[in-house]
Write a structure and sequence with these properties.
The chain is α+β, with helices and mostly antiparallel strands and about 290 residues long. It folds into two domains: about 5-110, Rossmann fold (3-Layer(aba) Sandwich), CATH 3.40.50; about 115-290, Tumour Suppressor Smad4. The protein contains nine helices and 16 strands. Strands 5, 6, 7, 8, 9, 10, 13, 14, 15 and 16 form a ten-stranded antiparallel β-sheet that branches. Strand 15 and strand 16 form a beta hairpin. The two termini are about 20 Å apart.
Length: about 290
Amino acid sequence: MKRLAIINPCSGSGKTGRIQNVILDALKDIADDYVVTRYRGQCRDVARLSHDFDGLIAVGGDGTINEVVSGMDLNKQTLAIVPAGTGNSLARDIGIRTLSESVLFACKAMPAPIDIVKVSVTTSSGKIDEWYCVCMASVGFPARLTRLANNFLKKTGPLCYPLASMACAVSQKRIGLHAFYDYGTPCRMQLTGIIIQNTRHAANFEVFPEAILNDGLFDVMELDAGFIKQTLHNLSILSGMHVYRPAVTRRVSSLKISAEKPQIFMIDGEILFDIKEIEISIASGKLKCHSKI
């Protein structure tokens, strides 16, 4: 198998770039070539041009993996992951925590089919863009939380998401949405946000302990809690106990969201603006990934 490593030196608040030589030395026996990216979106561009390689190695966090998956040939190429981001949601789900584990299972483990989520977004001007979501997408409160964590609190490391969650919980606002689950009857909702989740983990916390990566479904959480209830919910997740969940959860294969006013929308850490409509469907077993489980 001929593999290309795509390395995002900015992942992990720049730590990946600082230990780049260590990573390259560890990958020398499984990577035939490598690219160190220089700008946002380059991982996707490199993956699109990687047709001479049978497999790709994504070195970075969930955003890096999202870009690589969105650009690679999912019908022909496999993916190995070196978890080097802040949250590493997918890597946690597939049981890979360290660089040595990444190399070991890229060498020995057969790539397993896992689900990813196909997302189509439409702006208020009618522009349509398509993405793959590997881990998590959201609108409303969780999208604002991610924006705050990534833009202003990233230097705090794993604490950036809990700190952003506490800050955003104070200023929650309900948004008007029309939701169509599994092509059913539309329902109007006033919510503080919606989370669309493919993995058990969101960043470094297990938010959806029942989620399964290869069941042909994704999880949805409808949020409508005020400051006190949301804070208690956050603490329940942070503790890993999941004893308090003031939210409606569903497991579905498709979802369409129409917002009454343009919203920001988050896909694996990437923030999109001025979004009016979102169409989401499961791509069952579409990604072939080397994993421990």
